[in-house]
Amino acid sequence: MSKAKVMLAAALLACAGSAFAAPVQAPAPEATAKTGIQEYEIQEFIADFTRFRIGDTVPALYLTDEYNIKQWKLRNLPAPDAGTHWTYMGENYVLIGDADGKIIKAYDGEIFYHH
Fold first, then answer.
1. pLDDT tens digits for range 1-14
2. Among candidates 47, 86, 45, 46, which has minimal Cα distance to 65?
3. CATH class, 27-113 region
């Protein structure tokens, strides 16, 4: 291999190596971090061997009074709006509509320990 080709190969390798070594700037923590109870909010979860998402309808069992969480404040949950109630499904707290059983909001069960 000629000296010129070796020098060219070395220069290309040096450039390529510096491109991979360039630091990647992560987004500022305050720009991506959720605060307060927002960090526990989830968009989907599994309960009763079924994947549920916001907007899905829950089984009728969760519309009964025995599944209505009345002490939502002790569990660090926001007050339910009129016509809704909190229930517990698959280790998650789920806000559902009383009339239609639609999931409005869901929080990971770890919110119970939030301070």
1. 577 666 656 665 56
2. 86
3. alpha beta
